C-alpha cells in the first residue's frame, strides 16, 4: 500500500542508513529507506567502490563495493522497504503526530519517526580547474569502477586529504608510477596513512597545482604543474588523472526543517535526537562535541538513533535491542 505508515523511515541509504535499517529490524520496527541515488551505498558506492577501507573494527581490509554489498544484504534481513531515486524535499508533522515526507517527484510517504542518515547531503565533486582540462575528459577521473584499467600506467593523483592519499596507495601496486600533487604541505589525512605514503614509491609534489593538460587527439600525455612558492613550472608525463579536490555538499531543503545546525551537520544530543521531536540523525548528518567522522563511528550512532526512535514510540520499551546472537530470528 503506497500510503501505509512506517515506524521509522531512514532518509539515506549509505552504509549508516543500511546498518540502521538492520538494527531497526532487531527492534521489530516497520522500516523504510529512502535514497536520492539510483542505488543504495551512498558516497562509498559512487566514489570508492574499489578503494580499500581499513578503519572498521574486525575487517582488516575491504573494498567499498564489497562493504556496500554486505551492508545491503544485512539490511535486507528484516525486509525493509527500500525506495531509490527519490529525494525527500519536505517533511510535515500532521495533527495526528505522523510525519508526511514528500519526494521531489511528488511521492508521499508516512512515518511515525524519521532517522536522517544522508551523510553530508547530496554531493557534487569539485572539478579540476586547469587549462585544456575540457580537452581530455576520458583521462580525468573523480571515481573509479575498475582499477585494473590503470595497471602499468603512469598516473597522477591530485589532492591532500584522506581520499587522495588512499587512492595513491591503492594505485601504487597497480600502476607503473604514481605521482601525488598537493598544493599544501601538511596533508589533511590520518597520520599513519601519511607515514605509509611517505615510505611508498609514490612521488610526492607538495606546494604544486596542476595548471595545464597537454596531449594530442584527446589523448593526455603530460601535465604542467606550478609551484605556488617559486612560481616555477614543470611537466610530468601521465596517462590518467585522479582528482580529489573535495565535494560541494547540499543539505537541500533539510536546512529548512527546523533543525539546529552547526559544523556541516544537524545538532544532536547523546541520544541522536535533533531539536525536532521524533526526528533523529546519525553518521555524517549529525554533529555533536568530539564527533568522529568515520564509518565505524556512524555504525555506532545508527543503533543509538534507532533505540531513541523506539523509545519515542514506546516509552516503556527496552533501552536497546537484544544482541543479535540471542535474537529469536537467528536462533535455529
From TrEMBL:
Residue ranges constituting the FAD/NAD(P)-binding domain according to the UniProt record? 6-290
Give the GO molecular function terms: ferredoxin-NADP+ reductase activity; flavin adenine dinucleotide binding; NADP binding
Q: Which cofactor does it need?
A: FAD
Q: What class of enzyme is it?
A: oxidoreductase
Q: PANTHER family from the entry? A: THIOREDOXIN REDUCTASE 1-RELATED-RELATED
User: Subunit structure of this entry?
Assistant: Homodimer.
Database matches in HAMAP family:
FENR2
Q: What is this protein called?
A: Ferredoxin--NADP reductase
Species name for this entry?
Answer: Listeria marthii
